Amino acid sequence: MIDLAGVTFCDSCGLGALLRARIETERAGLKLRLAHPTNAVVRLLEITGADHVLTVDPDERAVPHPHER
Length: 69
Prior knowledge:
Elements lengths: L1 E2 L8 H16 L5 E3 L3 H10 L6 E2 L13
Parallel strand pairs: 1-2, 2-3
């Protein structure tokens, strides 16, 4: 599980890292899960369609970061 609670900005480099981590964990026979994504991360995943290939724990979704609006 990757805890994204403190992530206030994520661009294509960060998204690429998450997608590579998913591939590597699957190769190892594991499943990658994302927890506590901030609204910025959720938005990026939705806009790019990555929310269809990355698993976001439903109970761990979109916890607003104190600096986000």
